Amino acid sequence: MIPSPTAGTGTGTPRGTLVSIEGVNGVGKTYLTHRLLEQMNSRGLPAPRVIEEFSARTGTTDLGRALLTALRAAAGGDYFLRGGHPRSETLLLAIKTHDHHTAEPALRAGHTVIEGRGPHTTAAYQAAILHPDDDTAAEHTATRILAETTRWRPLPDLTVIVTDDLDTALDRAHTRDRRPFSADEQRLLNRAVRLFEHLATTDPDRVRLLDRRVHNPVAAVALLTEWIAHTTPRPPAPPLDAG
Ligand SMILES: Nc1ncnc2c1ncn2[C@@H]1O[C@H](COP(=O)(O)OP(=O)(O)OP(=O)(O)O)[C@@H](O)[C@H]1O
Ligand SMILES: Cc1cn([C@H]2C[C@H](O)[C@@H](COP(=O)(O)O)O2)c(=O)[nH]c1=O
């Protein structure tokens, strides 16, 4: 496993590190995560656990899927789950809370867990949706959404925001999905990029930018490996029902 200097779990097993990989559609989150897993595998190291990506989830077999399926249906297939009620749709945080809940046993057992799109995606995307024309209000709301999140689940120990030229990222997603992005979607994603950068600037200890214009895939995976290895897991917050 990726070495994890740790906070204790109370059981003698060092706690694992929770890492989120963030960034706009097509930027390469899944690609780089797979390259990281391949590298761990080729070195004979235990692979991090990966929380299933959103687009692969269907059905209602658990609470997280049921919530996502309901949001998708209410949004009529919109890529960003917009059904016209953005404040209610920030319910996406409930899915992220559920994801953390399901990751907790692996973290307690000392595994590194990778969350593809964590709370920072919800903060950036929902803030961009809620304030389409007001950058300052959007930044404020993104910060508030993250703060609200921590009442229900901890933020990842390390958040890596993958960045690239937006057109390059969207071309990749277009080629992959055979679905172009509308002008409205491109505007939303442009704002999401700026909000991701804002969130990175305001929390430099926890959040890192990985710029694909600067780092080729080999260098990007090496950086990811190094950042994960040097992240100290934070002790878990007491559960809400702890009294
Ligand atoms: N360096 C690369 N070389 C070749 N193909 C790449 C590279 N980086 C990304 N891709 C391809 O580009 C497409 C988009 O990348 P990927 O699926 O990893 O993006 P993503 O950030 O996970 O996107 P989304 O959030 O939309 O799921 C994929 O088909 C992926 O295989
Ligand atoms: C968590 C979250 C996701 N979305 C959107 C963004 C993407 O279009 C899809 C997820 O696709 P992926 O291939 O699994 O990355 O869902 C969103 O709009 N808001 C969110 O909080």
UniProtKB/TrEMBL annotation:
It comes from the Bacteria. GO terms for molecular function: ATP binding; dTMP kinase activity. It catalyses: dTMP + ATP = dTDP + ADP. It holds the Pfam family Thymidylate_kin. InterPro entries: P-loop_NTPase, Thymidylate_kin-like_dom, Thymidylate_kinase. One of its GO terms (biological process) is dTDP biosynthetic process. Transmembrane segments: none annotated. Residues 21-207 form the Thymidylate kinase-like domain. Belongs to the thymidylate kinase family. Phosphorylation of dTMP to form dTDP in both de novo and salvage pathways of dTTP synthesis. This is Thymidylate kinase. It comes from Actinokineospora cianjurensis.
